[in-house]
Amino acid sequence: MSNVGSLDRILRIVVGLVLIAYAIPVGFHQTGWNWTGWIGVVPLLTAIFAYCPAYALFGISSCPAEQRG
Asked: How many CB atoms lie within 10 A of CB 13?
């Protein structure tokens, strides 16, 4: 069951990759907080599977009505 639409998926992929790049660090200064960039795995996985548990919890969907299910 999908609850993440196309535009939402694209935004999640971009945000996830930027956060992961911050963790690695690629082009970012090394700080003590770079490890927090691994949080980017969450939006990346929700984009890949087109399913967001938080959306399901709150009854939200960014999918068009004809694509649900």
From this structure: 16
Distance of alpha carbon 58 from alpha carbon 25, whole angstroms: 34
Give kind and range of the element (H or E) at residue 21: helix 6-23
Is the CB of residue 20 less than 8 Å from the CB of residue 40?
Answer: yes
Q: What's the whole-model pTM score?
A: 0.83
Residues 47-52: contacts with CB under 8 Å, at least 24 apart = 47/4, 47/8, 47/9, 47/10, 47/12, 47/13, 47/16, 50/2, 50/3, 50/4, 50/9, 51/1, 51/2, 51/3, 51/4, 52/3, 52/4
Residue entry with tokens 């090394």: 30
Does the pLDDT at position 30 exceed 60?
A: yes
